[in-house]
Each structure stands twice: as C-alpha cells, then as structure tokens.
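Sanity check. The docking grid for (2S)-2-hydroxybutanedioic acid depends on where the pocket ends up, so I'm generating a full predicted complex first rather than guessing from homology. Inputs follow.
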Amino acid sequence: YLDSVPLGPPDAILGLAQNFRECAAAEKVNLVVGAYRDGEGNPFVLPSVREAESRLLARGETKEYAPITGSPSFVQRALAFAYGEECEALTSGRIVGVQTLSGTGACRIAGEFFARFLPKGTTIYVSDPTWGNHIPIMELSGLTVKRYRYLDRSTNSLDFDGYMSDIEQAPAGSIFLIHACAHNPTGVDPTTDQWDSISKAILAKGHHVLMDCAYQGFASGDAEFDAGAIRRFVADGHSMILAQSFAKNFGLYGERVGTLSVLTASKEEAARVLSQLKLIIRPMYSSPPIHGALIVNEVLGDEKLRSQYYDECAGMAERILQMRALLKSELIKAGSTHQWDHITDQIGMFAFTGMSADMCDALTKDYKIFLTRDGRVSMAGINHANVAYIAKAIHAVTDG
Ligand code: LMR
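Predicted complex below; grid placement will be based on this.
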C-alpha cells in the first residue's frame, strides 16, 4: 500500500525552518519560527532554568512515569501563574488542569474534548489570521472551523467592528479560539476596553472560549499584565478552556511543557471533566514527559528563583521591543517611505509586516532571509548585527 501514499505538503512554518537549516549561504537569516534568540543570534537557555536543572540533578530526581494528568505540583503552580494565586475559581477547586505537550498538545486535547461533549456540528471560530496549526488541530479533532475577522489588512491593526459583528453573527454556543496575549501571527492585541466588549459579546451569545496563552510574560515583560484577558474572562464567568505553553516564556521549546485547564461550575463538575480528560490522554500518549515540568515547578516554587525568572523573561521582552524600534528606524534610514508604525505598535514575538507572499519569496530567494509567506517576521531573529541588512532587503522588495 505504501506505493499509493501521496507526498504531503511541508508545514507552513516548520517546513520553512527546515529550508533555512539546509541553506548554505553565509548571510542567511532565520525569521521563521517563534523561538527567542539572544543579541548574538544564539538560542538562549534562561539562567533560572539552568539553575533549576542543576538542582534537579543534584537532588537525584528519578525518571518515573508521571500520572496521566502530569505532575500535580507543576499543574498547581502553572495554573496559579496564569489565573493568579488569589483566583477564587482556582482556590475553590473549580478549575481543573492537566499537564500537556505544550500549547499544541493542550489545544489538541481541548479540540477532542469539545468534539466529544458539545453538540455535533459545533463550529470553532478562529481569528483571521491565526497560528497555522490551529486549523488542522481543530479539524482533526472533528470540529468545523470558521474564521472571525481580526486583522484589518489596510492598517495592520485590529478590525474590532468586524470581530464584534462575527461574535454576534455566530450561532449561539459556538466556540471562539482567542489568543490571550501577543496574538500569533499578527502581534495585534485588543486594548483593555476592547477586551471588555469582546468578553461581554461572547457571554451574551453563550459562546464557549478556548484561550490559547503562549506568551505570558513574554509580551509586555509583565506576566501579571499579560494574564489580564484570562483573569477577566474567569471573573466574567465564561465557559472557558485555557491552553498554556511554557515554550516561549521559559524558553523550554523542545521540552514540550504546558497545561490545559477547564473552568467549571463546581468541584463535582471538575471531577467529571478530569475523568474525561484522562480518557482522552491515556490512549494518545499515556502521560506527559516530566523534565520540563519539573523545571517550571522548581522555578515557580522557589521565591528567589522565581523573581530571577521574572527578570530574565522581562529581559527577553525588552530586547524584542528594542529590535522593533531599531527595525523601524533602519527601514526609514534605508529610504523606505512606507508606514511602519505597526512594527512598534504590535507586541510579542512577531511583526506582521503586511508584505505579500511574493515579497517574502523575494526576500528568501535574493537575500536568504527566511520568513513565513504571510509576511510574519520573528523579531527574535533580529539583532544589531543583521538589522540593517534585513531593513535594506525589506525596503528593496517592498519598493521594487
Ligand atoms: C511559531 O508560530 O513559529 C511557533 O509557535 C512554533 C510553531 O510550532 O509553529
């Protein structure tokens, strides 16, 4: 049968990352994947993470299986990080959480859970655009995927009216997949007032929410601020599932560490939900890997290490903000007369430049600058040494 297996297309993000690896040009630049790089362009392991790892080693942590739902202590600390220590729903046991294979794994379990327990044919609405992987994750979970308006492509800012009207027009009881902060790929987040209206509109229609939180602390540099939308939605009493990733904010990309949590109405409901999450997880992969979770547990569980971590995470966010300002000023210096304010207005790992697929292709072909074809630039790949080269190349392809 294998002779009839068709060749599948490469992944829109990870396929290009592979092309970058295979490119031999000395001047090549990687602006594809949302993975932090330091000022010299190197991968960065947070010193607090290194310290936690050495403690685990010194303590002789074993390699035993975690429970199906992962490390209980990690889950508890991870949820307090997202919802806040004082969150009533959390302290009263109404939020039930499991450890997952990072944010992707959490989204997949959420998709499976929705498909099993919401009425057949329920639609999940994702932002237009959204992280490319959201769509196949939800489709393969058996949900119908539709889009809600999000980015106004003429201004590269939020299409707030379109967003509100799509919430209103979606059949009651649909699911809305929302990025908690640092929207991927656009870097465009609602303002506090807009969040307020979005929350009210979703509640009024009885929609369910899947909140995907991949950048807490990484967006503004302040983990509490970046959790604002999550905490507001809990306070407003939504039907909500949270997918939480520690890939970016802890730099634990390859460790695959995250959580999925469900906001329920009572402890009894929480117990039923948890039993079903176990039934989804066990036949998929039995139980999650432990190393990354032990690291996060160690960092969040130790006051000194935790405060060191906050500073380090803020440092990453700060470097990205500096690179935004620098990229914009280098574009102007290169002679570009386009409006680039959105580069500094947007937040998080990415700048959504507004470049067309043809322009992106030209950047890759002529300048060996690799980026996704939607015009998304991973700001983490930019540093003092390459910013002028990148700006000149962007100017050349956008003015050509
Ligand atoms: C990205 O959007 O580049 C990251 O979230 C990595 C990925 O898995 O796509």
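Relevant for the grid: The mean pLDDT is 97.
Also worth noting: The longest strand covers residues 239-245.
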